[in-house]
Specification:
With 607 residues, the chain is α/β, with parallel strands linked by helices. The strands form 3 sheets. Strands 17, 18, 19, 20, 21, 22, 23, 24 and 25 form a 9-stranded mixed β-sheet that branches. The chain has an 8-stranded parallel β-barrel with strand order 1-2-3-4-5-6-7-8, surrounded by 6 helices. 47% of the residues are buried.
Amino acid sequence: MRTSIATVSLSGPLTEKLTAAARAGFDGVEIFENDLLASPLTPEEIRARCADLGLSIDLYQPMRDLEAVPAEEFARGLRRARHKFELTRRLGADTVLVCSSVSPLAVDDDALAAEQLSGLADAAAEYGVRIAYEALAWGRHVNTYDHAWRIVEAAGHPALGTCLDSFHILSRGSDPKGIEDIPGEKIFFLQLADAPLLAMDVLQWSRHYRCFPGQGGFDVAGLVRHVLHTGYSGPLSLEVFNDVFRQAEAGPTAVDARRSLLLLQETVGAAALPEPVVPTGIAFAELVTPDTEPVAALLTALGFTRTARHRGKPVDLWQQGEARILVNTGPAVRRAGAGLAAIGLESPDPAGAARRAEALLAPVLPRRRAVGDAQLDAVAAPDGTELFFCATDRPGHPDWRADFEPTGHGPAATAATAATAAIGVRRIDHLALTQPWHQFDEAALFHRSVLGLRAQESVDVADPYGLLRSRAVTNDDDTVRIALTVGAAPTDDTVRAQHIALATDDVVAAARRFRAAGGRPLPVPGNYYDDLAARFDLPDEELDTYRELGILYDRDAHGVFRHCYTHTVGRVFFELLQRDGGYRGYGAQNAPVRLAAQHTARHLTGG
């Protein structure tokens, strides 16, 4: 199906919006009136620009307050409409959006509304233009799609049809199944938007919180299935009012928008994409740092060993159990210090994963590869993190570890090693990636659509400087867990920090070993443990141990979670954690304490 996007969904001047839409692969655009009024280009020049970009102009919008009004008001509206119909013709478009009236002059009279809309359609037809009548969710008298259709049906004019808008329909809780009663040829246009489920005034909800399909809580795909069942053959068009999108760069937003429509088309069976290849584990996490000493000291205290070095690049492999950390001393952001730059994802089909990513507008990144280096494809997540598709130790697939030469310091298979394995790190439990403030929803959709991960519910966490919003994405067996976070204070280093969570079978022993090796745990205020004693009936000895080691505690219906944190190096810190009994969360209850402690530690050290 053809795809389109309303210019109001993107930031910047009209020419930038058109260029972004074309580069993202859209077939057409809806020209929003304010964008045209603010443009120095004439309608003919806008039409030519769109043609040069390969874009059709599918709709001009909006017009409103034209129906079910007193005769003199209608006469004024008809005069205004004729000007807009002529403008639409000059743009080369053939459809104008007319929204249901919100005017206090409008009356509750369907017969009058049908009569006046028919008169408007007569005028529109003189210019070769059609009218798509849309029920605004806050319309004065017409605010549901079925009511709008009854008026269109009563008017019976060939140049008058309806426009269906998923937000206006789903925000009011209307049943979209009734859409199937509308003939497809009378659905002149379909506008799509998702939104988080909020309890608020529907107008403000619409104007500020719409998002792209798949990023909110509406069943947009279900609505589209009903529309397609009618035989509708027009474009799938996005109309999204969102404060974040209006401030973000138009190019990436347009790509995010197009990706959402590709996923939507796949969901409803209107497009065939390469099958999702869900990752089965975390092969490695790669840190980039200008100074290896503090990172090496921290990894050593955590029990990691530098086991190998890349043959041709300044990259070391540190390992403990199945947890692998690459330390890259190549280019890094000097002011920020160490940062998490890449993640290796175990994939049952790396080539298939790359094909899926490219089909969803995440092209494989160019890489400098020496002769003999493993063929390893990577794509960039919205925050710039590189995601590598790996097949570690799998026959018939290149193994990235073959690019590394052993240092001779690998862990020996001794009885002592076996004895300490139970108190050491087993694997990477999860990774926490802080997103740019304007890419949180995009990141969740990316990981869900490109990687096939499941997105969990968003969680708001109190931070000393505002609220953090976090959302985890996982595979079915939780062997891949990635927590996506965005903060209210994007200029703050603590908010922008990333972390690597390491799973152990005995967090108390692991924390003791870390301290004994010279590691610096994150100090936790004593008030936390006083409150912990009130919330949970824990033995005094257990509480004293947690207090001594800075261990935090949580419990859910499935089990118990114990965890502690290291100090931060650059923008990275580590978490040691123990899950017992099937605990499924991430210790969100303790996040405000951790964040406050990190702020305090940073201020005390001046870092």
